[in-house]
From TrEMBL:
PROSITE patterns: PROKAR_LIPOPROTEIN
Gene Ontology terms: cellular component: cell outer membrane
Protein name per UniProt: SusD, outer membrane protein
Keywords associated with the record: Cell outer membrane, Membrane, Signal
Gene source species: Aquipluma nitroreducens
Amino acid sequence: MKKSKIFIFIAVVIASWGFSGCTNLDEVVYDKLPVDQFGKNTKEVNSLIAPIYRTLKDVFPSNYFLLSECSSDMAITPTRKGGDWWDGGQFKELRFHTWTPSTNLVKDSYNSAVSAITLCNKIYSMINENPAIENKDQIIAEIRGVRAFWYYTLLDYYGNVPIVTDFNNKDLPKTSTRVEVYKFVLDELNAIKDVVRADVSSASYGKITKGVVYTMLAKMYLNATVWNPAGGAKWQECIAAADEVIKLPYLIEPSFKQSFIVKNQNSQEIIFPIVFSTSDGGNHIAQRTLHYLAAPSLGLKIGTWNGICAMPDYVKAYDPADKRIGWSFLTGPMKDPATGLTYITAHGRPLIHTVDVTMKYGFDADGWGQTEQEDGARCWKWEFESGQNGDAENDMAIFRLADVYLMKAEALVRSGGDIAEATRLVNVIRKRAFDDAAKLKTTVTLEDVYQERRFELAWEISSRQDMIRFGTFLNAIPGWKGVTASKYLLFPIPRTARDANPNLTQNPGY
């Protein structure tokens, strides 16, 4: 009897979540393999789970990068003179804290997380049901780890969301409370922490590992008073999780820039990267931040968009001797390499990037106006490669060891623990940022730790979460916004999601 050949196709169905709109998950249908051969070797299994890691490219430098940094006091995407970056007013809404369930970034970011979780559930189901695949426990733990990361993200930004783990259940899910989501993520991480691979190597780079899981656990415990306040503080648990990471063979790189250079995959400080490549969805931070004329000044051959820049007071808060200013922010004249002359913008002004960002033109009734094209310090943290003619391949560290050091230091200070150890951890970070040993701390306060996180982790999607935990997120930003209502500690569930699924509950105040 001639057997017909059956093929496995990957197709993600996400309507049950209430998802509406488009995503750039073009890898969803990624392979076609005979079912009787599928999963019999590591290469095939890796090809199956690879798309769940590609979903992380929706974190940076787009959706969650913009939600975090532009809603905090770290960055802004101003409307430039001439109207560029008005974008339907969404960046005004992020700066003023007036976003709604219809704001595009609110919708797109929610959709990207939902899509990623659904993909994880689909691949989990396929692996679980396939008898040809061996070592399922570790593979499934890896998938659960990526799914847990996306739930951790939804927990942080949206709070109250459905918990969906069964791809084959097509019932419209109901909203789970933030506390329920918090407990779910903790349970998932604790279930896989001793199952996932523990090595820190080129083979485990970019994958869910023990280091990644314990870093997420530390984050969960650090933010417990915000995400599960009735459960109380979890400072000791945060310290214990951080210690598990610190015991692993990561290290604080002597060179700060090692974690941001083009070939940064060899950095031993990076714990969990978004892996970018020029051939498979690269890092476009250069395009997003640089002025239209700036690329030739830096030896780049790309079109640039003149978008995001730093908030002035964020940059001005650095000690002038802190080398991280120059490592993180681009200011000054952009010059034509052929003539040595400073470029002139379309509005006849020298292209000299300033720290200040000033609204001058075209004010609307809410006080939002347009800025000069050259205003604002640009993102300069990830190295731009001379000759770059497309997206870059610098990976973005979602988690790196410096963050873990500072999490442990914060938990020690908050718990009234070993302040000498907290001071040592902060000084390890400061030592590479200053040439003068007198800049090291003799002791640290909670405010010292907070500021150190800001100086160290600029542009790294930490500012909103940190500001909320330290109670500063709703504060006025002089010249930009007044004190804002507590509902803005969470983003709303998008209107399109609730239209598609009436079981979803809107966050309070929206």
